[in-house]
TrEMBL record:
<feature type="transmembrane region" description="Helical">
    <location>
        <begin position="55"/>
        <end position="74"/>
    </location>
</feature>
<feature type="transmembrane region" description="Helical">
    <location>
        <begin position="115"/>
        <end position="134"/>
    </location>
</feature>
<feature type="transmembrane region" description="Helical">
    <location>
        <begin position="140"/>
        <end position="156"/>
    </location>
</feature>
<keyword id="KW-1133">Transmembrane helix</keyword>
<dbReference type="Pfam" id="PF13564">
    <property type="entry name" value="DoxX_2"/>
</dbReference>
<keyword id="KW-0472">Membrane</keyword>
<protein>
    <submittedName>
        <fullName>Membrane protein</fullName>
    </submittedName>
</protein>
<dbReference type="InterPro" id="IPR032808">
    <property type="entry name" value="DoxX"/>
</dbReference>
<keyword id="KW-0812">Transmembrane</keyword>
<feature type="transmembrane region" description="Helical">
    <location>
        <begin position="86"/>
        <end position="108"/>
    </location>
</feature>
Length: 172
């Protein structure tokens, strides 16, 4: 069984190299405290976890783009009525729709995915407050349910925040 270093918190893999499969090399690699060493079955488990997390991101992005943002951006009567009842009108409806669409797209961009999940969570806090205060909590559970996978994504992809800061500093 070959042992490869792997960072399980990101989608990045080091370039694969062949390593001798001796007990001494496995013991030496396992004793390195500053490197995560993953053996065969754990690598497969980590890969499955990354695939599942990516699938969750795609599902949430589709939900926010199609089911949530699109009705607001096309001015669907159900969305228009809700925002008229809030007193926000079409400007508020288009603004929230644009924010949801931007968040959906950003969930699919590796360097933005953690920030997008946090921003969409903040938007869901606002949606929860509006649902409970204005609409008597009719659909108040929906934003809370959506915040759970968003928090998971924000936490699991948090290492990308450092990449984003480096990118922004380089451009400044």
């Amino acid at each position: 069984m070959a042992v490869y270093p792997c960072d399980t918190t990101t989608d990045r893999f080091p370039q694969e190299t062949s390593m001798p499969e001796t007990t001494a090399s496995v013991a030496a690699a396992a004793s390195a405290p500053d490197r995560a060493v993953i053996a065969g079955p754990a690598t497969a488990r980590g890969r499955r976890a990354r695939i599942a997390l990516r699938g969750l991101q795609v599902l949430l992005a589709l939900f926010y783009a199609i089911a949530s943002a699109l009705p607001k951006l096309i001015g669907h009567p159900s969305a228009a009525e809700s925002f008229a009842e809030l007193g926000w009108g079409s400007v508020g409806m288009y603004t929230v729709g644009a924010l949801e669409l931007a968040g959906a797209i950003a969930l699919l961009v590796p360097v933005l995915q953690s920030v997008a999940a946090m921003a969409l969570s903040a938007l869901m806090v606002g949606a929860f407050v509006v649902q409970t205060a204005v609409f008597d909590g009719e659909h108040a559970a929906t934003p809370l349910i959506l915040m759970v996978p968003l928090a998971l994504i924000a936490w699991a992809r948090r290492r990308h925040n450092a990449d984003l800061v480096r990118l922004l500093r380089r451009r400044a």
